[in-house]
Every structure is written in C-alpha cells, then in structure tokens.
Amino acid sequence: MKEFTSPFSSIPLGLSPERHFSEALTRWNYFPNQKDSASEMPPCFTTRRFTPEIAEELLKLPIQEARKQHWFDLVEYRVTRYNNISRTLALLHPLAYARLHAKIMANYKEITELTFSNQGAIKIEEHIDGRMIIMNYESHDARTSAALEDTFGKRFRAHTDISNCFGSIYTHSLEWAIQGYEQAKNNLFTKPKHWSSLLDAAFRNTKRNETSGLPIGPATSNIAVEIILCRIDKVLEGHNFIFTRYIDDYTAYCESHDEAQNFIRLLGQELASYRLSLNLNKTTIKELPEPLQDPWTSLLNNALPKRTDSEGVLALNTSEAINFLDFAVRLNKETPDGSVLRYAIGAIACRGTGDAAIAIFNYALNLAWHFPALLPLLEKIDARSEAYDVDATHEKLNTIITVNALHRRSDGMCWALYYLNQLNREPGEDQIKEVINSKDCAAITMLCKFNKSITFAKEYALSVIDNATLYELDQNWLLLYELFLHNHIDNPYTTEGTFDILKKHDVSFFYPVERASHAEQFCHVLSNPFQVPGQTMPFNQWMQKRVAPPPPPNPPSLFG
Fold it and tell me: Which residues have a Cβ under 8 Å from the Cβ of 158 and sit 6 or more positions away?
C-alpha cells in the first residue's frame, strides 16, 4: 500500500501546505467553483478577498442567543444540468463558513490523512489557480492509459455510484468514519467532545442545524464526503479489488462475474453502514472487452473537421461548423445523458474566427435557450468581430432571462445578466420584474450592476428586511451585503457584526475592483518565497499600518 504523504507537501514558493489549504478553503473554493472551467457561477462572483485572516477575525464575534437556537441558513443557487433538472448549490453565510473553516484547520493534519486514498481520482490537492478541488477527471489520455492498465487480464467491469450522495450524507456519520462506530457511540456523552463531534456540529450549523445532507459547492463538503468514502475505500482495498472512484462514482475491474457482484455487494453494505445507498439505475456489470470511451464521443471526434490552414493550424469554416453542430444536435437526441452538446461546442469554440465564430456563437446561443448549461461556453467563442449583431444578441439574452426566471434557474439568469453587462446593455423592464419575482438572491444581486435595476433590487431587499427572521436574512445575505457594502442600506443584522468586519476589510463577493485589498496583499506577502520565516508582520499590525489615518502635519519650524 502506498505510504501517505500530504498532497500539499511538494508545493513551491513561500507558503506552508497548511496555509495553502486554508487559502484554498476561504479564497478559492468557498463558492461553487469546482469544474475545470470554473463555470458553475459567472466570474463576477468571487471570494478571493475572503482571506483566512478575515475568517479568523469573524470568529471573535459573540454568537447571539437567537443564533444558538437556529444557527444559519444559506443562499441557494440552482444550477441546471444537461437534462434541465436543477441541482441546488449553496453560498454559505460568511460567519457560518468561518466557523466551519476554523474547525477544519484546527484538525488539518488528521483531515489530510483521512482524505487520502489511492483509488480516489479527484484529489484534494493544491492547484496552480489556488483551488484544492477541481473536477478535471484527468486528461483523456491519462484515463485511457489507466483503464488499459486496470482492464488487462480482467473479464468484467462493474460500475455504480451513490444515490444523491451529498444530499444523503448523515452528518453524525462523520464521527463514525473518524472515530469508528463503536468508539463514537461510547464517546457520545464524553466531555470534552471529540473533534469529530465539533466538526459535525459546524457542518450542521451552516444549514439550519440539519443532520441530513451537506451543502453542495464549497470544498468543505467535499472534505466531509472524502472522510467517509476514503474509509470505505480502505475496506474495499483490503479485499484486493481493482477500482477507481470519481467522487461518488465507482468503476471496478474484475476477473469473474461473481467478483464483480461481490464488489457491488460489499460496496453497498459499507455504504449502508453510513446511511448511504447505491444508485440502482446506474449499477451495471459488463463483460469485457468494452470500448474505453462512450460511443457518442467517438462519433463526435470522427465528425470533427481535421483540416488545417496554410500554417498548419486547425481551421474551420462556417459550413463545417454548422454541419458539425447539426450532427451533434441529432446525436444529442439519441444520447440522453446530455453531455453531447457541451462537448461539441467546447471542441470547436476556440477554432472559429470571423464568420465561423459568429455562426458558432449564434448556434450556441440558440441552443442555450433550450439548455442553460451551455451558457458558460459562449465566453469561449471569439466575440470580437464587428459583424456580431449586438442588438439581436441583447434581445435573445433577455428572452433567456425570461424563460429561466420562470423556471427559477439561477445559472440561466445570472449568465445571461453577466453577458448583458459585458455588452454594456441593460436588462429589459419585464426581465427585471421577472428576476425580482423569482426571488433568486444571486440573480437579484446581479441587478445591482445595472443602472435601471438597482432601485428594484434595493426595494426587494428592504421588503425582505422588514420583519425578517434570521433565516430569511441569511437566505439573501449576498444581496444584502452587496447593498450594505455600497451604502444603499444599513446593516440588516442589527446585533451581529459580520457585515461590518467584511466591509472594514473591503471584502466584495461581486465584481471587486482589480486592485488587491490590503488583506489580499498580506496573502501575497506570505507567498513570497524570499521572505524570512517567522519575520512576517502579524496581520493586525499590517492592517493598522495601512488603514491608520495619516499623522498630523509637523508644526512650522521656528526658523521658517
């Protein structure tokens, strides 16, 4: 068995592995931001100014009695899958997230060991952009190479995944995975509580103190899932199964059908001990050899034009682009998983120039009305040509806002509003009202960026604040903080200083200016590989030096 080493142990520059881990949690993987292309939310949403030092300062706030009774709620962000079924992601309240971050960092060493697995394909590790979780699933070549290695001498492939994994996690099962079931049971009333019990409580407190389900999006939830599933991996390892796990998706290669059945049986049995279950609709055992990639992938790759221009660069004219996308639309009707169109548009998005780029853009925009999951791909298409019909695009984006507001799809509204802002255009009056009526916090927050709609966003916020419970404030915290940050409303949390601390440190979660805040600059100093260890100025001193008022002028000299 491979010996454990921290996935952060070989990181260059001046940061320790623990510091990288902390910054990844706060600055880069706080909001939903795990896809390779970072396309869950438009890039105007960012947490880069929410640094570990600010999270630590939030911990000093006293917890009000009302909070202890109900704890925190969250902003829901509904992202659309390829079958147009929405999946609810979470934007956790900053104070709740700071408390969760603190519990994880207090047990950093144990957690990094617990989340290590030879079979886990998605590693919790530092990436070049600062994130710790990226759903890249390795390159096609790497996956093919691994599959060829694992399938040699095997006759059957077993595949399954966990039914509603994040939504089914029982938070108390973290204690079972960390301590062992019997030990956790024996320690139930022991004082002081084991750190796994405190971690369980911190997760529950981010989501109305509920024990069922984890908020989907922040890396903290992936850590919780990995703690449990890595424990199961070790049990499967002990039975010498050859398998790979992609988060909650398992593929095993077996020498016999009985072995494949035993893998499914044992996995289901271990999952049941943590109150999880297999997705029976996605559980299959197939006899090998089988193709290494889905049939539709091969068909698309074969249909992709391979012509090069005079300089040897892959070229694409308008007719070729239209024919390829037509083929993808036909193939999409035959393949219900919905990935075909995204794969096809992604394959040619960067190859189009001039008229071909316009054709690809317009085709993709028309498809995005039907499939909002395609909207993030529009940004990859070269839109600099003067031949683009901006007026027509403006009208289509407004129509996309309308249909997504009707179905309460956060991503459809937010991406369309993001593109309108990029075009320096305003949403229509009807679309503004439809976004407001959807009560979608993220989309209404985006209305704050437009001159015509910020008044409507403010009116909506004031209606929320009027006689609101803490839960209702938390469900809209992103909008409320954006308006508070720019002095449009007073702090709606009259007995809680979270917003005040965030504003003091110039934290912005929405369209921050390009310059780095003082807290960000402090992070840059820590990452300096030439700094002398132990001689970095403490954060409080750093901030005082930069935000303190200038000294009074010297009195005039007696000598003139």
Answer: 243, 250, 251, 252, 253, 254, 260, 261, 263, 264, 283, 284, 285
